[in-house]
Every structure is written in C-alpha cells, then in structure tokens.
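Weekly sync, protein design subgroup
Attendees: M.S., D.O., the rotation student, P.L. (late)

Item 1: inverse folding check
M.S. brought a backbone from last month's batch and wanted to see whether the design step gives back something sensible before we order anything. D.O. pointed out we never logged the input encoding, so this time it goes straight into the notes. Structure tokens as presented (383 positions):
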C-alpha cells in the first residue's frame, strides 16, 4: 500500500481524474499533482507540519483515487484465498486483513486490504497505480461463480492520528468496540449505515486511525464535519509518504513489485505458520524454498548518519579493509520529521545483518548508514 512517486501518472494528454473532494483541496490551496492519472494534493502548506500534525492530533487524507472492488459469491473468500499466501476463510464478517496477490514466480502483483463483509462478500481496496492490473488479475483468475465488481461510486476517506477516535466520538461515532482491522457499517455524515458506508480501524501511517468507504456525497459531508474540528487538518501525498516510511510500511512500485517476493519484503507474517512449508498460491514453491533456505535478499531499515537524506536507487556497499562490495540498494528514503532526521529502507544481501554499517552512494558521495529493524517510529495501532 501507500503512495507511489508523484511523477507516475496517466498517458500524456489524458485528462486527469478527480476525486469528489477535488474542490475541497483547491479551496485549501493545495499543490495539485498528477498522481497515477489523478489530480491529487501533494501538500497544502508544509509537508513537515502536516506530518507532525498527524502524529500529534488528527490528519485527514483523501484516498478516493484507490479502487474499491467487491467480490460476491458463496465461495468468494476461498476463491480470493487461492490467489494469496494469506488466509481469508478464517476471517469473521467485519474483519480485514493485509495481503498480497502473487505471480507464478512468487512476485507481488499488488498489496491490498481485504475485508470479509459477509459470508458471501469480500471487498478489496486496490492501489491507484495498480487498480486496472488488479481488476484484470481478479477477473482472470477467480472462479466464474464469483462476481467481480469495481465500485467506482465508492471511495475512501482516512482519519489518522492519536485524536482520531475522540474526533469521531464528538460526531456521535463511538469506536471503543473496534480494534485494529475491525470494521462495521456506519451512518457517519448521513451515510446509509449499510455495507456501502463502512468504517474500519486501520490506515497506513502507523498511527491509530480510521478509514471510511462511502459514496461521494457522504465523503464530502464527512470531510466538512471533520475539518470543522480544530484537531483535524488535511494531509497530502508528501506527508503520507514520510509517515508510512517512518512506520516501515512498503510502497508498491518502490519496495514491492512483480520481481519481489513477500518473503524478501519481510511480509512472511502474512503467511500462516502452518502453510509456510507449501503455500497454496501462485508462486508457492518459490515462497516455500525461500522460507526454508532464506531469500536472496531482504528488506531492512536504514538509520542514516548525519542530516543528508538518501533517496531511492542509491547503491549500498560494505567497506572492509579498503575493499568495497555492493550489497544492495535503497528503495525508499527521505526526511523523517518525527525522528528529526533522514530515514530509509532497502534491500540487502543475506550476508549483512542488523547493526552492520554500510555506505550509500548519494551522487558520488558516501553517506554512512546502519542496518536497523523496522519500523523507525513505533506503531500506535489499537490491538
């Protein structure tokens, strides 16, 4: 999940798509950018201030560019389960799970949040840049008795931060019954209080927070109600990226792609222990081999010495006795406002370990980094 590089976008000359909240962003003086073919807010004022406000109070995110897809059929959960190393049939209605779809080579098609809405209905939310790929993948691989329906009329609005629950409580929505990845219908801002107006406890910032899936009119009313609270302010794509980076959360297109397996990406926790010997998904043999023998590379956190950020693509090297050996590359990196310093993550070969010192090549200059465990900032999820 997360926010692709803002330079990625639609075909040149193609009008950018707009979320129902586009006018809200323009009125808030947002800097709008082409993001996966959508006109989206990069920032409103200061990305650093937006980042810190989310950590300290409550940030509001328009994620209406992501695609909501409903899978309906008596065996919808089992059918989707066959395309991922995770399990879904054990989910109670209302529960969600983070998962990846895999290729025949074990690579990642996309990372998704899947919610079992009812015994015969599963809802997934796809990354904007992979929405059409995901839709084609699901239509092409799921059994014919499972109906795959893109819900273009629905979208996602996210409220993240330590004050998020209190803000919703002041709007009449008590969330004390919800733990991380729990969800239920909601009537927030005049929503229909059914499966098409859904509140879940989750998000991709590392903070406690909530996501609402609803139609356009409901999202507009809810945004207005939330922004009337002084604890809430808009947060754009730039701060969304630095928040997920500090939280050690993968970004598709940088930390995940079709050439990267979930084992390499440190997502082994998404594979049930009793299935790791032989995951029953596309690429299961590759995953089983990597789980048994170790992957050829692995995703790690990188603590950066000094104040100079290291960026995606920077080569990582181990220097020993004046000998330099390439051991990997940075996939995500930037400034971490919470830690007041640069943070990064990347892939390294298995012969280097946590605590090892490396150098990152930043425009021909060596920047010292140390391999650390992720996340850079502890998660605050309500378990």
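Designed sequence read out in the meeting:
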């Amino acid at each position: 999940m997360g926010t692709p590089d803002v330079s990625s976008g639609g075909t040149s000359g193609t009008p950018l798509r707009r979320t129902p909240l586009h006018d809200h962003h323009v009125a808030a003086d947002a800097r709008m950018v082409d993001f996966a073919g959508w006109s989206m807010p990069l920032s409103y004022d200061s990305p650093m201030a937006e980042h810190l406000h989310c950590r300290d109070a409550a940030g509001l995110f328009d994620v209406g560019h992501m695609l909501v897809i409903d899978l309906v059929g008596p065996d919808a959960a089992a059918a989707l389960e066959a395309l991922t190393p995770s399990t879904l049939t054990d989910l109670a209605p209302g529960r969600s799970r983070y998962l990846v779809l895999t290729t025949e080579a074990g690579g990642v098609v996309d990372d998704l949040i899947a919610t079992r809405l009812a015994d015969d209905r599963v809802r997934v939310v796809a990354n904007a840049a992979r929405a059409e790929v995901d839709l084609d993948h699901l239509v092409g691989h799921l059994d014919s008795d499972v109906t795959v329906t893109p819900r273009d009329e629905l979208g996602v609005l996210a409220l993240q931060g330590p004050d998020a629950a209190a803000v919703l409580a002041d709007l009449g929505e008590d969330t004390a019954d919800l733990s991380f990845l729990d969800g239920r219908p909601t009537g927030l801002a005049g929503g229909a209080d059914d499966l098409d107006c859904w509140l879940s406890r989750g998000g991709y910032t590392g903070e406690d927070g909530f996501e609402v899936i609803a139609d356009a009119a409901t999202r507009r009313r809810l945004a207005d109600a939330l922004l009337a609270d002084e604890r809430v302010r808009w947060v754009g794509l730039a701060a969304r990226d630095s928040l997920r980076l500090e939280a050690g959360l993968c970004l598709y297109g940088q930390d995940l792609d079709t050439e990267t397996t979930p084992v390499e990406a440190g997502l082994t926790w998404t594979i049930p222990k009793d299935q790791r010997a032989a995951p029953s998904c596309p690429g299961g043999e590759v995953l089983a081999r990597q789980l048994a023998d170790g992957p050829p590379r692995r995703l790690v956190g990188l603590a950066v010495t000094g104040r100079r950020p290291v960026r995606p693509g920077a080569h990582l090297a181990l220097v020993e006795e004046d000998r330099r050996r390439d051991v990997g590359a940075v996939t995500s990196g930037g400034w971490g406002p919470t830690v007041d310093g640069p943070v990064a993550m990347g892939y390294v070969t298995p012969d280097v370990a946590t605590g090892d010192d490396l150098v990152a090549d930043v425009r021909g200059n060596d920047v010292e980094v140390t391999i650390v465990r992720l996340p850079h900032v502890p998660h605050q999820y309500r378990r």
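Discussion: The two ends are 20 Å apart (CA to CA). The first strand starts at residue 17 and ends at 18.
Action: P.L. to compare against the previous round before Friday.
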